Amino acid sequence: MTASLEVSRLAYAYPDGTQALFGVDFRIERGERVALLGPNGAGKTTLVLHLNGILTAGHGTVTVAGLRVGEDSVLEIRRRVGLVFQDPDDQLFMPTVREDVAFGPANLGVRGEELEQRVKDALEKVGMREAIDRPPHHLSFGQRRRVAVATVLAMEPEILVLDEPSSNLDPASRRELAEILRSLDVTVLMVTHDLPYALELCERSLILSGGVIAADGPTREILADAELLAAHRLELPYGFTVA
Amino acid sequence: MSAGHRHRVHRPGDTPVHRLPPQCKLAAVAAFALTVVATPREWFAAFAAYALLLAGVALAARVPPGFVLRRMAVEVPFVVFALAVPFIGTGERVAVAGLSLSLPGLWAAWNILAKATLGVAASVLLAATTEPRMLLLGAQRLRLPPLLVQIAMFMARYLDVIAGEMRRMRVAREARGFAARDVRHVPVVARSAGALFIRSYERGERVHLAMLSRGYNGSMPVLSDLTASARQWLLAGTLPGAALAALLGAWALA
Q1: What is the ipTM of this complex?
Q2: Out of B203, B207, B213, whose CB is closest to A52?
Q3: pTM over 0.95
């Protein structure tokens, strides 16, 4: 079976010469939920922008469900990889929730009744069905993050990539989002340094540090290895232990 | 944070005026304004007829006079300018209540006031009966360049976000003991404005990335079907039509 996502020997340097990725290798199977952990500046965001072809690899390949990311495949890749940005105000740019959720599928050519159905289904999945006609800036932060997830779900992605999904959420919104993510039948790659959240949601974790994958294994084992975490500037919150 | 924002100029309702497609209303208001501007200033009867027409629209849209008057405050700078003209104008002078006023100046002031007031009142009625985003969709239907419509749309969406950032920057300044009191503080405020510009610019870049990520390829997908029937165009046309009739009537009398 083809993997949902396969990254192979991916290297990238920014135009100013700063090398951000030095050969990243990993593979995510369909239906897995994987956390990508790493300190600030490890290259997490750079890696994420490669996954849907916004940045193109200097060296190496990214393959999504058998389709290689390249200039000719970019629209289909963007349908397959649903990117949820950290700040929902960046993600929600249309005047109403309905138009925002419809934006992605409409760009793929979906119209009319089918489009309306996709919008409703996606909002249903994140529990925001009743907000359909509201402007995004009238929603709470947690609600906006959920709508942001719906905007990519409406594109029926192969893999959902979330950048710091728990940041700035109050505890209740954080738990609600976790419940939603668990209920989705989709492959998830979650970029975070909220380690308890990774443990709660992802059975497997990767540590990206210094532009390479420094660790890949069950989240519980990785979080229990205090030396490994310390070596990559990762720390569990005070009072939190992994049994 | 911004709950009241949407309803500052828009007054939701379900009247025939509210239900008209936005492109019809936009075109009607533009045609009405052109008719008003084309009217010679001496034709008082025509101006009276225009005012009556707008009152009729307000009545049909159930927009109370107080609502219109309060929102007409945007006209104040023009009023101030218009009131100054008779004093600074040249030419033949007349004495009014002991003041020596310029006769051409008085005519000019009347011209500005009457036409601006009618135009602003028509725009206020348009805004009161049409949601801002519908106005933009209407403009798009009227073949306004899509880039301009997109810019206006993003402005409407991000005004609150940027105002929020501006407020946080002000609070951060004041939290460290800064208060803009006189002209010496202008450089600090100016630097904040520069920082705000850069933040907004960077946000624009992030929004663009988010758009690309969802398959944006340079044009917005058209999502709402805003076709107007001939009947709706005809109904919207009554305002400029009646105004034109009034203009022609006044011409026959003149």
Answers
A1: 0.84
A2: B213
A3: no
